[in-house]
Amino acid sequence: MTAAGVWTIILALAYTAWLVVGGRIMVRRQETGKGGFFVGGRSFGPWTVAFCITGLFSGSSYIAIVELSYRTGISAVWYGVAETVQILLIALLLVKPLREKLVVTVTGIIGDRFGRAAKAIGSVITGLTFPMYSVATTIAFASALHVVTDLSLPLSVAATAVVLLAFLSGGGMRSVGFSQTMNVIMIGLMFLVGVWVLLADPGLGGADGLVARAAAAPEMLVLSNAGVSLIVAWFGTFIINVPLAQAAFQMSMSARTPEDGQRGLYRAAVLGIPLILLGVVIGVAAALVQPGEALPLVAIPEYIAGVVPPWAAGVFFVGLWACALGWAGPCQFSGATSLGRDLGSALNPAATERQLVRYTRVALVGLTVVMVVFALLRTEESAWWNVMAWTLRNGATLAPVLAAFFWPLATRSAALTAMLAGFSAGMGWYAASGFHATDFLLGMHPVWVGMTANLLGMVLVTLAQSRWRLVAPGRERQRGVTAVIVAGLLVVAGAALWPWLVQFGLVGLVMLAAMITVFVAVVLLTEGGGTSRAAGGGSTPAEETVPSRSEPAT
Fold it and tell me: Does position 537 have pLDDT exceeding 50, yes or no?
């Protein structure tokens, strides 16, 4: 074990102990009233929300950007820009409406609108995909630990999973708030070490500095080097993920007021900017100093450890640990909330809050095991797990969430069909692509295929089951007709530009855009016109079109 490895182990153990012990002390000092476990008693101030969101998104972005910038240069900055856009859209569009409905989870939204069966299916899919996100980010710290200590990657991920269980099971969202604040402080220290590394070796100027090396590799300074299709996919994925960002919802819903939640999100967007920029520069510097490594998340720790003293390298690597925990902690907790609170209430509608908390703690244990199993199955490529998670969760839940917000005519059977169709289509396309993380069949990302099938299933089954009629002439019908025209133009353009779209990997995005436009057109042009013929389980039109508000959100 290297000297940097010894320092990393010592600092990581000390930091982890503080997260576990300090978190429990802080939780005991605060009253845990109704909803305390799931939304922190709705007591978070804007800075706590900001630290929660910064640890969640900026920490994960830093890891992704460092890896991407090693491969694609400064074009990786668009990943951070796309994620920042997502944060701002959540703040602008969703915080206040979701707070008015006392929303906790995406699966809760689906269950309130479409019933217990939809809630159960959505909870299982959502709960099992969150450990995939956790593994994807944790691989970064595991890679660093592997470099300096020779511990195996699966063992490092397993250790992370156990630590997450230790501090999450005690205080729930309050523990998340405390740990995210500490993580942001640790990430700040990592930022300072990163600046030190850049200035020390190779430095900015001089014949062997970063500027000179970059001049010899100009492709690393091209903003489109990652490829137009990949950059568009980042923006498309993050924007479409706005109504599905469950972990972010849970954090912002823990604020004292909707305004505090919004302010916290705005501050998080600002706090993330320097971290995004540092991630780009560190990744590019590592690529210029140590080019050609197959695994960037191994090459970068080697670069860091070779420049600064062992104790400083240890601080940097524990910063990566904080990034991993900042993403994985909320993901594990939010996934457990879906499995424990939402699946538990679907199976046992009479469950008390105490029982739901117990279910969630059991789910945390289960997801810890799942995360370790995922780590044993595949640890060499974090992007693979992200693709799998995006595809399965977004492919299953997009249409039901949009319908819950915007389409009273949508039926329960349509929601179930949409979830199963999206899940199956996305998974099938990923399988047909050989489960490759970047090279997909016809250049179509599986998440586009899954979400398209998801929306199509919702539209077709609802129209087939419900008695509906066109809305009366007026502004809404005009907008609907416009949406039909736009959808037609997208289909025609897609057919005409097919070779070009395939070349740049934009077929799936155009297909999804056309399907979203069709969905918008149907929502605008249809209204209830009588009793449902088969609204899923013999429910009445009122049950189908009016979301249930009888179940209080915790």
Answer: no
β-bridge partners, 470 = 526
At a CB cut-off of 8 Å and minimum separation 6, what does 474 contact? none
Q: Report long-range pairs for 24-28 (Cβ below 8 Å, ≥24 apart).
A: 24/167, 24/170, 24/171, 24/175, 26/171, 26/174, 26/178, 27/170, 27/171, 27/174, 27/175, 27/178
Q: Provide mean pLDDT across the span 265-288.
A: 90
Check residue 117 and give its pLDDT.
Answer: 93
pLDDT band at 383 (very low <50, low <70, confident <90, very high): low
Residue pair 40/189 in contact by the 8 Å Cβ criterion? no
The upper half-sphere exposure of residue 142, i.e. CA atoms within 13 Å in the direction of its Cβ, equals: 26
CB 458 within 8 A of CB 400: yes
Alpha carbon separation from 72 to 83, 98, 383, 441, 506 (Å, rounded): 18, 38, 14, 22, 19
Q: Write down the pTM of the prediction.
A: 0.82
Cα distance between residue 466 and residue 450, in whole Å: 24
C-alpha span between 305 and 533 (Å, rounded): 67
The total of other beta-carbon atoms located within 10 Å of residue 224's CB is 12
Q: How far apart are CA 508 and CA 504, in angstroms?
A: 11
CA dist 101 and 547 (Å) reads: 11
Contact between 132 and 393 under an 8 Å Cβ cutoff? The reply is no
| pLDDT over threshold 60, residue 33 | no
DSSP state of 255: B
pLDDT of residue 553: 33
Percentage above 90 pLDDT, the chain? 33
Mean per-residue pLDDT, 250-275 = 91
- Measure the CA–CA gap between 363 and 341, rounded to whole angstroms: 9
Closest CA to 363 of 156, 165, 106, 135: 165
Predicted local confidence at residue 381, as pLDDT? 63
